[in-house]
Each structure stands twice: as C-alpha cells, then as structure tokens.
Amino acid sequence: MNFDLTQEHQMLKNMMRDFANEKVAPGAIERDKTKQFPTDIFKELSDMGMMGLPFDEEYGGAGADTISFAIVTEELSRACASTGITYSAHISLGGAPLSLFGTEEQKKKYLTPICTGESFGAFGLTEPNAGSDAGGTQTTAKLEGDEWVINGSKVYITNASHAKHLAITAITGTENGKKEISAIIVPTDAEGFTIIDNYEKMGLNASNTTELVFENVRVPKENLLGVQGNGFKQFLTTLDGGRIGIGAMAVGIAQAAFDKALRYSKERKQFGKSLSEFQITQFKLADMALKIELARTMVYKAAWLKDQGRAFGKEAAMCKLYASEIAMEVADEAIQIHGGYGYMKEYEVERFMRDAKLLEIGEGTSEVQRMVIARHVGC
C-alpha cells in the first residue's frame, strides 16, 4: 500500500493551495456578508482548466482522476466553503450525469460548456416533498409527440442561476404501479422555466441555492438522459460520486478550523503562558488533527476505489458521514479554543461551523448515510 500522493497530485495540491490562499481566502469574509457569487474566481479556475477536471479531453475536460477532484475541492473549501460547494456541485452533480449517461451528441452539446466554464453544472433532484425520500418525486414529464412537457418544482438546487442547462428527475410514467422516474436535460432559458434565488441561509452564503419551477416546459424527446425509467438508479450513482466531493469539502473546512485554532493557541496568552502550552488545549488539537487525518484518508480511499472502477458506494457514504460530522466537531472546538473571539465573525471560525452544518444534510443526511452503510454491511 502506498499512501503518498503522486508527483502530479502533489503539484496540483500545491498549485491549488497557492491559488486558494492568494485568490479565494482574502474575500471569503466579505462574500459571506454580501452573498456575492465568486464569478471572478471561477473565471480564473476556468482559465486554469479546472472546470472540467475529471472529464474526457474531447469534451474540453482535463482527463484527471477523482483524487484530483477531491484535492481541488478540499483546497477551495479550506479557503471558502461557498466556493468549494459551487465547484463540487458543478463537477459531481452537473457534469457527472452527462458524462456517465449522456449520448455522444449530448456530451458534445451539454458537457462541453460545463468543462470550458461557459456554463455551471447543476442537477435538479430535491423537491418540497422529496428530500431524503427522493422516490417521492412529484415533478412530471409527459411525452406529447416529440416533446416532454414538464410540470413541477425543485428546491435547494445549487448553481442553477448560473447554468445554461441542467438535468432534472421527473415521473415519466408508471410501471407495475410504481413511479417511473427518468432524467431529462432542460435548458434554463426554456419557456415556462423559472429560477428563484431568494433563500436566506445559515451558511454557504456566497453559493447559489435556488428553487426551480416548471410550468408546461417543453423540451425535445432526445433530451432524455440515459434510459427512460432509470432515473432513480442514475441519480443514486451520481450521489455516490457527489458524496466524495462533500467529504472533501468537510476535510477542507475542518483543516481551516484546525489551522486557525492552532495559530491562535500559540498567540493567545493566559496565566503567563500560551494556550498551546496547556495540556487540555494540546489534547483538543491532537484529537482535531487525528479526526482530520482519518477523514482525509477515507475520502482518498473512496476516490481511489472509484478511479479503479471498483465498488465505492459504501466508502463514499462512510467518508461523507464521518468527514461531515468531524467538520462540525472540529469547528466547534476551534470556536471553544478562541473563546469569546471565536464568536466574532472576523475570526472566521464561526463561519466554518455555519458552513459545515449543510454537509451533514446535503446529498443524503447523516441518518441516510447510516442507512446506506447498513445495507452495504448486510443489515
């Protein structure tokens, strides 16, 4: 077993760390206040060839692996989790379904703009009455002649305001009394398609989170993504990959919180010595470092399994569950180490906790991850 990053992975990590420190981190506090979407940052990421990182070069991608995606997501999230989730969703939810299930024509038409940065990637799954129970989908798509007619709504959709198209799930019929769910590609400028961006969120304020409303939206029959009726299986596969991104995000946030806490503990004096000289602080920092190391290793293992073409669903759920929960724990401890200063926005650690909370909810709650893991281990 070799736990070293390859030379290429290490170069990518160094490059993204420098970029995150110089370009992403300086505006993070202000973006959290103003909710300004980081357009300029993503223009630079596009120029760097990061927007299509794991996708085939023939569609404008870089042909990199999942470990590379995890590295970039972690480094961006360490500096600004809003930037990290925007990137992770762009790749794992927006581009991945097109890459996995799209026809050659669909990939050229819809995946290429995602890879080049002309469009952000987005995926419409969650509905007002279909969160953890995605099988409760109520949005419908009825075939009329050569067109799908779509009606319904989606909620909590990342990046849709900046996407030119996105894949959504909809009921396309029934089979043996059960809903037949399919995935369909919908241009965001289609008549009857409304995108609403007015959520007031706890954290991740500079990311774009929207509601989608479909009122007799018509798209060509050939916009069906994958096999009709296989939408449920397709989005489960998509979420497996997305959970690696969430795990990487969580590691990045936890690392940022640890770094701030370690630095502060060395600078802050109490009773004539620095906080870092007290054993209780040392034990807190040791536990934080331990959990981050374990979480990162789990993320890399899930990514490696995916890159090897092996089953990775269990490991993706494990890394997402563990990393998201320790991100909250580490952020909490970082605030505690900062004391009263930790409660103040300028010290940033309170933002890390607000941002981390979504990771225990999105792309399958912690409870759902435990259900997934239980099934994998034979329960």
Task: Give the SSE map.
Elements: H1 7-24, H2 28-34, H3 39-47, H4 66-79, H5 81-101, H6 104-116, E1 123-124, E2 140-144, E3 147-158, E4 165-175, E5 178-187, E6 193-196, E7 209-220, E8 224-225, H7 231-267, E9 269-270, E10 273-274, H8 279-307, H9 313-338, H10 349-357, H11 366-376
Parallel strand pairs: 1-4
Antiparallel strand pairs: 2-3, 3-7, 4-5, 5-8, 6-7, 9-10
Helix pairs in contact: 1-4, 4-5, 4-7, 5-6, 5-7, 7-8, 7-9, 7-10, 8-9, 9-10, 9-11
Description:
The chain has 379 residues and is an alpha+beta fold. It has 3 domains: 7-116, Butyryl-Coa Dehydrogenase, subunit A, domain 1, CATH 1.10.540.10; 123-230, Butyryl-CoA Dehydrogenase, subunit A, domain 2, CATH 2.40.110.10; 233-377, Up-down Bundle (Butyryl-CoA Dehydrogenase, subunit A, domain 3). Helix content is 51%, strand content 16%. It has 11 helices and 10 strands. It has helices spanning 7-24, 28-34, 39-47, 66-79, 81-101, 104-116, 231-267, 279-307, 313-338, 349-357, 366-376, and strands spanning 123-124, 140-144, 147-158, 165-175, 178-187, 193-196, 209-220, 224-225, 269-270, 273-274. A hairpin with a 2-residue loop joins strand 9 and strand 10 (273-274). Helix 7 runs antiparallel to helix 8. The longest helix has 37 residues, at 231-267. The radius of gyration is 21 Å and the shape is globular. The two termini are 30 Å apart. The mean pLDDT is 96.
